[in-house]
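Might you be able to consider the sequence and fold that I enclose below?
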Amino acid sequence: MALVSVTGGKKHQRNLAQDVAYWAIYELMHGNMGNNIEVDIEITDLYKREGLVGSCCWGEDNLMPRDFEIEVDKDLNDEMLEQAKDNGVWINSGDGNGLVFAIEFADGSLGLVQNKKGELLQVNFDDDSYTLPTTDIDMDIRNLNKEELPPGA
């Protein structure tokens, strides 16, 4: 079994980091490869100190690394929201029935956005409910007062 240790941050941040690490190990690694992985995660004030939201270094074997040291900024949520605002894109879903929201990274790769339940932020083309995906938020502007409407609407 993989070994994940998390230090720093608040309890909920440590739990989330550990859950994400185990998910990534067993979802993204091939076969039993995940069973031999060791990940040490430290939640710090990395952004204030170095202007980074995260960093990852691996052990001695650069062809098949098994030991990883990850440092993540404790205020990552705010930075991720900024990334979503600045670099968020809607792309076609895999089945072609709608759009999914993703964040485009500097190298051109995309990270699909999910909620805590693992549901993608997705709009299906045949959805006429006017509800923000994966929430109960009503987006139908016909239900808003004139004072609540955005300028020009």
Remarks:
- Helices lie at 11-28, 46-50, 76-87.
- The longest strand covers residues 38-44.
- The mean pLDDT is 76.
- The first helix runs from residue 11 to 28.
